[in-house]
Specification:
alpha/beta, 6 strands, hydrolase activity, metal-binding, carbohydrate metabolism, HAD family hydrolase
Length: 213
Amino acid sequence: MIKAVIFDMDGTLIDSQPIWYQVCTDFFQQNGFPVTMDDMIKLTGSPVAKLVDYVLQTHGQKDKERAQLITGLMDYAVSEILAAKPLMPNVKEVLAQLKQQGIKMAVASASPRNMLQGIVDSCDIAEYFDYLASAEELDYNKPHPAVYLHAAQQLGVNPTECLAVEDSVLGMISGKAATMKTVVIPAQAEWDDPRWTLADFKLTNIAELPALL
């Protein structure tokens, strides 16, 4: 029996991936790195620190200040996403239905807490979540299961009684490694990726989620 649903944030609850791709491309180019949009798309689901490490290693500029790049990129991305408030269609209705059913809910994201809190506040969905789990506060980020296990612990629910909802392969692996049932809602361009067969359920829209419960 599923007692809790734990959501990824970017690409699952908010349509932020296009913003992330543009923000990362612009930011790195402004800082002298010849990255492309395709470079950023290939790293979908990766935390900011991994993006920065990839760019530094790929372009051989390890003398650049890593911590400064991480902070600068995150600040830029958060401001752009909060300004856009890109809530996915049907999200608020689905969250309300799950809450009425007595389902506990949390967010498990690679993004920092200030971004998660800012998004749920600005999109008016904070009331639905019992906990916001940021992998940046833990020892490991996705695809490690730490953030999902931490969220389940904070909810007081066994991981095997949780449903993880994701849009990326890295996130799906994280949820599965946490021994949770995993739902994936892929972007249309990634729908035919054979790796989705690892998930327990594959949906076209978050509106289909309540029927699973």
